[in-house]
Q: What sequence folds into this?
């Protein structure tokens, strides 16, 4: 046990925007503060349909969650879960199977505290505050160890997370630790922002986010694909997230492509 | 598909794009069908109730997050498509539809407002929860730090800092008792456990010892670090209480410990202090207890020792004396006196033993037993001894034999000097510098030092003998060991302990035994071709008996008291 507090009160400051709460606002949520809304508005001015992108990203999370449920997955580790009010993984999963279990992990203490309020009576779901770059702490966290069975396949959800982890924090190494721990037959879901298509607009968003605790780390298609190393890509591979197995053609937003890649890999 | 279903599906789809939460298609269709049926029922009811519209609007606004577009699109759907789609044009009046849409909008807006307020409240609660959790985490870590600062990390007992804090509190706390006691407890030879069984076994032993001490009801057990523990006893009545606690603690530790399958016997020593809180600074008690613990260890361990102010004053005085020695040497306060060594047969002086004196400015003339031991402890014996040796040699150079061999000078060597690696070389340099022939220097070493001589000491004796310096064994006959060491050591003389000579005066059995022992020792010396010297001759009778026993050389008040060179040699 270290002598450092788990987090300092200074970390909890609703005068400083977080991406998690700005994202909640973009999704039409009210679980945000003035600073978060200001950040979201800056993002909107850089990419006018950023709300559509946020929604497409959320839709991708829902579709992939349902896909994993169809494959028999009943436990999920959702890292970078953010404010969990808007279409939660545990709601989708527990609708399919009431015994499904979901562990949410986020770095934002307010998001985690809010998650705990929501999950207070839910035995199949938990929320912990931990940093993706510290995978050992996630894997050894008592709440996670108690809830999830790492000997059974699970879904590791990293939707809109990795583009908030810069290379100097070694996201590839951290992910390797997590992948190593997963049982064969587990799935890895990644949604990841890119500057491949609209470098200028994305740069402006990156600038807006740069002053938060999680500045953007945008990557190319090839760089994102590398996160799946050792896993078998599920069809159709790493594509624009809205094009990943859409429910029906009219489910797609009008102009969804160009910002976020999505893909699912399976551990052989 | 019924007209109602058709309308519901189209409505749901138009709102879908504006919805942030994407319901699955069938869920969405079911939800909008329900809303549509409720509206249709209200519209076609005999008695129109616009409140239905209000509730439908509220329900739509409650479907998790919904975009502002949803309201506009719904109004469009209801106002332009509802009546035609359900084939109600002309059947239902526009005013009824308008009233329903108005109620719907109010219900939607009100619900949206309420939800927004609820969610804002929820996120603020989360903010407060996160803050208080963070503050608790900080407090926990502060508590951990505080605990770590005041407790031993291995045993969890209060540590030295905590004990000192408590002792300090005795003086400042109004509710403090009048008297208190401290037992400082040191485990005897604990390092040998570490050395033989390893540090982890040593740590487990410390933990077990800590557990036993903490179960003693007499006081609060503390772990001051390493093998040192303490008991703080608040509110004693008399020294006995603290001593009893120390006794109990030592007894508790005396029961063997079981560590890693080994049964480890252990003993401990304790230094005990008991005093009134008003008697000086309570934190000084720890220093006093440490002094008493030192005494207990010196006295042979496995015992307690009670701190005694007089004894401490003696220790302090010795320490002060020890510290003064270098300055005293520089100021020339050390000097030598000489006592003649006489051929018992002829009465001729064959040598002088040099004896050190310290002319202390305050304490007067100090004999060697007051300061040689201290100098050995501090290591100052090495420079002091060499200085005195050179002085003695310089003196000896001036002596003449009046035709016969001039007297030798006999200088005492401390055990520590004997072990000093450079001894023989340094003696050679001094003899050379002073110009004294080596055979005119005799070095006296105690029988005990000779007996235990090995390594450096043995090499020194051999080297000194090799360069013709005489080596004499002082206090011969008082050792408790065999005589085999005599074979290893090239010595020239033995000096019989003065206690045997003192016994020669009487006619008792004891006196006859002493005489017999002396006879045997003289015989032994001569068999080994050693000169035999007797010390402490104070009477003519002693001299005569020693002469009769064949003793070669005599020394004592009868034959000449130690005196300054000025008196002796003018």
A:
């Amino acid at each position: 046990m270290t002598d450092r507090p788990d987090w300092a009160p200074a970390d909890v400051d609703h005068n400083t925007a977080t991406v998690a709460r700005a994202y909640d606002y973009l999704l039409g949520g009210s679980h945000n503060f003035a600073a978060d809304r200001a950040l979201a508005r800056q993002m909107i001015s850089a990419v006018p349909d950023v709300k559509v992108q946020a929604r497409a990203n959320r839709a991708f999370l829902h579709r992939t969650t349902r896909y994993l449920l169809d494959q028999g997955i009943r436990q999920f580790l959702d890292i970078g879960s953010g404010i969990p009010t808007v279409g939660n993984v545990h709601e989708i999963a527990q609708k399919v199977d009431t015994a499904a279990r979901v562990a949410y992990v986020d770095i934002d203490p307010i998001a985690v505290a809010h998650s705990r309020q929501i999950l207070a009576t839910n035995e199949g779901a938990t929320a912990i505050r931990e940093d993706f770059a510290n995978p050992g702490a996630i894997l050894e966290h008592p709440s996670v160890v108690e809830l999830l069975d790492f000997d059974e396949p699970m879904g590791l959800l990293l939707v809109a997370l990795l583009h908030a982890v810069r290379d100097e924090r070694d996201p590839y190494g951290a992910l390797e630790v997590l992948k190593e721990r997963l049982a064969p037959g587990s799935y890895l879901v990644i949604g990841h922002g890119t500057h491949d298509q609209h470098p200028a607009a994305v740069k402006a968003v990156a600038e807006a986010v740069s002053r938060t605790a999680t500045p953007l780390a945008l990557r190319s298609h090839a760089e994102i694909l590398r996160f799946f190393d050792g896993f078998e890509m599920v069809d159709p591979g790493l594509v624009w997230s809205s094009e990943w197995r859409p429910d029906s053609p009219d489910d797609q937003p009008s102009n969804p492509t160009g910002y976020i890649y999505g893909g699912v890999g399976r551990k052989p | 598909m019924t007209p109602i279903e058709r309308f519901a599906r189209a409505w749901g789809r138009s709102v879908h794009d504006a919805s942030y939460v994407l319901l699955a298609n069938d869920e969405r269709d079911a939800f909008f069908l329900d809303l549509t049926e409720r509206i249709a029922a209200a519209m076609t009811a005999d008695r129109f109730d616009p409140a239905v519209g209000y509730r439908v609007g509220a329900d739509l606004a409650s479907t998790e997050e919904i975009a502002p577009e949803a309201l506009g699109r719904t109004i469009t759907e209801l106002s332009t498509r509802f009546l035609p789609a359900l084939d109600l044009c002309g059947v239902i009046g526009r005013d009824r539809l308008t009233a329903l849409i108005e109620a719907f909008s109010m219900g939607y807006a009100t619900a949206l407002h309420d939800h927004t307020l609820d969610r804002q409240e929820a996120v603020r609660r989360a903010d407060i929860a996160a803050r208080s959790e963070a503050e608790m985490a900080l407090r926990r870590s502060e508590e951990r730090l505080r605990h770590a600062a005041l407790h031993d990390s291995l045993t969890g007992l209060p540590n030295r800092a905590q004990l000192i804090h408590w002792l300090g509190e005795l003086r400042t706390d109004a509710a403090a008792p009048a008297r208190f006691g401290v037992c400082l407890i040191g485990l005897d030879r604990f390092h040998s456990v570490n050395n033989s069984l390893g540090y982890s076994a040593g740590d487990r032993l410390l933990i077990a010892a800590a557990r036993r001490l903490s179960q003693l009801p007499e006081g609060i057990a503390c772990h001051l670090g390493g093998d040192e523990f303490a008991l703080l006893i608040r509110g004693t009545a008399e020294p006995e209480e603290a001593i009893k606690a120390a006794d109990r603690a030592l007894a508790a530790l005396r029961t063997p410990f079981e560590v890693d399958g080994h049964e480890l016997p252990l003993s401990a020593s304790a230094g005990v202090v008991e005093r009134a809180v008003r008697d000086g600074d309570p934190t000084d008690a720890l220093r006093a207890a440490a002094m008493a613990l030192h005494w207990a260890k010196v006295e042979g361990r496995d015992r307690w020792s009670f701190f005694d102010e007089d004894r401490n004053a003696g220790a302090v005085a010795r320490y002060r004396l020890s510290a003064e020695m270098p300055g005293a040497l520089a100021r020339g306060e050390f000097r030598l006196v000489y006592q003649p060594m006489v051929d018992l047969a002829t009465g001729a002086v064959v040598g002088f033993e040099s004896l050190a004196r310290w002319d202390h400015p305050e304490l007067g003339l100090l004999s060697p037993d007051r300061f040689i031991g201290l100098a050995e402890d501090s290591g100052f014996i090495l420079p002091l001894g060499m200085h005195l040796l050179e002085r003695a040699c310089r003196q000896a150079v001036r002596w003449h034999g009046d035709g016969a061999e001039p007297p030798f000078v006999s200088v005492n060597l401390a055990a520590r000097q004997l072990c000093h690696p450079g001894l023989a070389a340094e003696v050679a340099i001094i003899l050379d510098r002073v110009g004294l022939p080596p055979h005119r220097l005799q070095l006296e070493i105690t029988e005990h030092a000779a007996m235990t001589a090995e390594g450096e000491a043995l090499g020194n004796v051999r080297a000194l003998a090799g360069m013709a310096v005489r080596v004499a064994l002082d206090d011969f006959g008082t050792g408790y060991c065999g005589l085999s060491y005599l074979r290893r050591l090239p010595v020239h003389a033995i000096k019989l302990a003065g206690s045997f000579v003192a016994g020669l005066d009487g006619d008792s059995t004891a006196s006859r035994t002493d005489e017999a022992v002396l006879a045997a020792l003289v015989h032994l010396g001569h068999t080994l071709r050693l000169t035999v010297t007797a010390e402490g001759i104070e009477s003519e009778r002693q001299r005569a008996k020693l002469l009769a026993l064949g003793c070669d050389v005599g020394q004592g008040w009868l034959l000449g008291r130690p005196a300054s060179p000025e008196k002796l040699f003018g």
Q: What stands out?
A: The interface with chain A takes residues 13, 17, 20-22, 24-25, 64-67, 115-116, 119-120, 122-123, 125-127, 129-131, 133-135, 137-138, 140-141, 144-145, 148 of chain B (CB under 8 Å). The first helix of chain B runs from residue 3 to 16.
